[in-house]
Give the backbone structure.
Amino acid sequence: MRKYKVSVLIERDEDGYLVATVPSLKSCYTQARTMEELMPRIKEVVELCLQEEEPTPMVFEGVQQIEVAL
């Protein structure tokens, strides 16, 4: 059994849901109301995504918020 370590980005959307995404896996995301609900869900989604693809090698460097106007 191979073990993987991936970074998970967690944000809160405008409706109050926590949204977890895994940048190293395409379309790997889920949402929940609480962190207790979110973590088992994202682990399950990561396992499913890993059955379909290898993660892109990435090293977490940090998070920045920017503001743009259109």
